[in-house]
Design brief:
The protein is of the alpha/beta class. The protein has helices spanning 2-10, 114-120, 154-163, 188-192, 201-220, 257-260, 264-290, 302-311, 339-352; strands at residues 23-24, 29-31, 40-41, 45-51, 54-59, 70-77, 126-129, 180-185, 224-226, 235-237, 244-248, 296-300. It contains 9 helices and 12 strands. The chain binds 2-acetamido-2-deoxy-beta-D-glucopyranose (3 copies). One 2-acetamido-2-deoxy-beta-D-glucopyranose (NAG) binds at residues 140, 142-143, 155, 211. Keywords: Signal.
């Protein structure tokens, strides 16, 4: 464990296996965001982190590693959550709990979002956050098309976690059922991209939620190994072991400056479609918990928090409920909350989860 921690704490870890070969001389580069060379320093030197972009071999002995513990957070979602983490680049480490890009990443509304604040400000322990969220995401791109085809849906994001190596608890990411939090904030684009469609919106919400919770079930799934009388081959399914889930419901997208432009009747319709989706989401969360012994869930009611703040914006330090892009605005742009709004969300999530390992 101590050699692992020393890796985690003294070098900028790369997922690529480029490392190992050449020994880097003193003052040569041994790490960094776009660096792909060796990470091994010549004897008598060690790889010292200088910045997200540069680590170098310096004479001396590596300082004692961070004594831990380290906990983990795996968020999934859309631009309300994304920090543009690339799971194939530098992984979360003691110098940057997001791994990449440089903290706090690139966000939908500009500046730091709730993932940044909860990882680094309202955290009650050191958290390595692997943020799989992707801007523009919908739950299933075949059900609600994202704004461009390259967007990774919730299905894609969970599959990236499941098949990209992290799910298997590798030495680089020693998460356990107990120390890992999984979170999902999705639905903004599903609702904004489909509320105006004809047909039974409640039935459509159930279709979306069926797929959403099938993915959650995949994350819970434990190692199963069995053979049956009809086959001589033993079968197994991959262990996953997620046990702690934070769900965030769909916020007041109807109050975004973008949707305000659509007019009052569009706003009213979207508001009611979202409210119905959120009611169904809450009952899915309850049944997911009930049918999975050992699973803990939290549900953050983002919708109510947006309502509370936007009904009395000045009480929360905002100039009004509709301006965007300026100092003191709730909205960072016409579809995303600002950094100041995200700070309030992060604090409220930390309050909801008070007493947990993470916040
Ligand atoms: C993610 O990082 C890998 C390794 O540095 C790089 O090859 C890839 O192009 C990056 N992906 C994106 C979308 O930037
Ligand atoms: C919160 O995270 C930061 C950044 O990783 C870390 O320096 C700090 O020690 C953490 N706080 C606690 C209470 O562990
Ligand atoms: C996504 O939606 C399409 C269209 O309904 C469906 O055929 C497909 O099975 C869905 N994908 C998943 C993984 O649920």
């Amino acid at each position: 464990m101590s050699s692992l921690l020393s890796l985690l704490t003294t070098t900028a870890l790369l997922v690529s296996s480029a490392a190992a070969q050449a020994q880097i001389p003193a003052f040569g580069q041994c790490g960094g965001l776009t660096y792909t060379g060796s990470t091994t320093c010549v004897a008598g030197t060690f790889c010292q982190w200088d910045s997200d972009f540069f680590s170098q071999c310096v004479p001396g002995t590596a300082p004692p590693p961070f004594a831990g513990p380290i906990n983990f957070w795996f968020p999934f979602g859309d631009s309300y959550t994304s920090t543009t983490f690339n799971a194939s680049s530098v992984l979360p480490n003691i110098h940057n709990p997001f791994g990449n890009p440089p903290f706090p990443g690139f966000t939908g509304g500009g500046g730091e979002n709730y993932v940044g604040y909860d990882t680094e400000t309202f955290n009650k322990s050191v958290i390595f956050t692997y943020n799989y969220a992707f801007g523009g995401a919908t739950i299933n791109a075949s059900l609600v098309a994202p704004f461009e085809p390259t967007v990774l849906s919730l299905i894609d994001q969970v599959n990236e976690f499941l098949t990209g190596g992290v799910a298997g608890k590798p030495a680089t990411t020693p998460w356990t059922s107990g120390n890992a939090l999984f979170s999902v904030w999705i639905g903004v684009n599903d609702m904004a991209g489909s509320y105006f469609e004809p047909g039974d919106r409640g039935a459509f919400a159930d279709t979306l939620l069926d797929e959403y919770f099938a993915l959650m079930q995949k994350l819970v799934r434990d190692f199963v190994s069995f053979s049956n009388t009809f086959s001589s081959c033993p079968h197994s399914s991959t262990a996953v072991g997620a046990r702690n889930f934070l769900f965030l419901n769909v916020p007041r997208v109807d109050l975004t400056p973008l949707i305000i432009q659509e007019g009052a009747s569009a706003q009213a319709l979207l508001k009611s479609v979202i409210a119905d989706f959120n009611t169904r989401l809450a009952s899915r969360v309850a049944s997911f918990k009930a049918s999975n012994a050992g699973v803990t869930t939290w549900l953050w009611d983002s919708n109510s928090v947006f309502t509370t703040i936007l009904s009395a914006p000045t009480q929360f330090g905002f100039v009004d409920a509709v301006s965007f892009g300026g100092t003191g605005d709730f909205w960072g742009n016409n579809f995303h909350p600002s950094q100041a709004a995200h700070q309030i969300f992060a604090q409220d999530i930390a309050t909801l989860m008070a007493g947990s390992l993470w916040f």
